Every structure is written in structure tokens, then in C-alpha cells.
Fold:
Amino acid sequence: MKQSVKRRQPSQDRAQKTQLLIFETAAKLLEQEGLEGFNTNRLAQASGFGVGTIYQYFADKRAILLALAQHEQGRAMQEVRRLLMTDLAHLQSEDEFPRVRAIVRAILHTFSSRQRAHKILIDLALNADRYDQPDNAVMALSALLTSAVVTGKDGSALTLTEIDAFVLTQAVIGSVRAAVVRDGRMLKRPQFEDALVGLITGFVRARRERV
Structure:
């Protein structure tokens, strides 16, 4: 059965701030108390809003958590979008494709903070009855990579096809999520970052040489 994540979309600045505060409080509660200590009454108490206000935006506890997962993914995608538009000279990287490491770090930073909360959200998403719906994080990042020109320090450029971008995104996001579930400490290891950078760089290099 399909379920609406939110009962309404905020239509004004105050409503948007309210929703953001609910998300922030929900993430802190998950990190500090786990799923067992999370419910709408506890969220209302911690956020300073009444339970009625919470239900104006979300149908139930599950809807809050699914919306929070989408919100966290959205934060990472915003940073990736910014990096794709950043001048290469400002990145100060020795990598063949400077934006690649910056993007990897942005994704790792998102998932490495509040690891307990992100593990709960990932587990929820994997177990949710959402098999007929696309993975928002994968689809968003794939769309960004499809529309962006991947530029190397030597000035070479390549636009990934939709399929290439999707496969590459699945590999990266899948690896990061697996690390969160298996051992979150892996996300802060330089070797893990290097492995992801190497994965993307090798893929892009192979596609560039094929063209």
C-alpha cells in the first residue's frame, strides 16, 4: 500500500522553518535514543511543538522517518550540485578530476555524521514497501551526473550517458550505505575515500577513452 510521506507541503517561510526544526530534532533523537525512544510525543516534547502541529505535516511516525530520509538525501544532493558548478581552480586538488573527490567527501560527510540515525533510516528504507518507487538519492545523483560535464585538470570533458551515470551512482551510493550498515567507522577512513574516488575516476577515464 502506498502512503503519503507528508500531509501537506509548507507554503510559507514559517511553515518551512517548522518542518526543518522537526527534521533536525528527529535526527537528534534517533542519534541519541535510537528507534526505540522515538515517537511523535517525544518528538513534540523535544521540538517544543504540540503533537497536533507534528500531525499537520506528517501522518504518523513512519511518515516522519521516511520524510527525514528524503531530507537527508536532499542535503547531500544540494552540496553535490554546488560542487558541480564550482570552478576547478577553487578546489585545489591534485586529482585527475578535482570535482570527484570533493563530491565523494560531501557524500561521506553527510552519511558519517549521525551514523546511528542514518543506519536506522537506511534500514527503514530497505524494509519499507517501496519497491515500486525509485530510489530518490540514486535518481537525483544520476540526473546531476547526466546533465553535468565531467572536466579533468587537463581540460578534457565528458558528459556521462543516463545509463552510465545510473550505474556509477548505484556503485557509489550502494557502497556508502553498505558501510553505514556494516561499520560506520569505515566512512572516515582515507582508504575508503580513495577507493570511491578511484572507482569514479577509473569509470570516467574508461568512458572518455572509449569516446
In short: The first strand starts at residue 150 and ends at 151. The chain has nine helices and two strands.
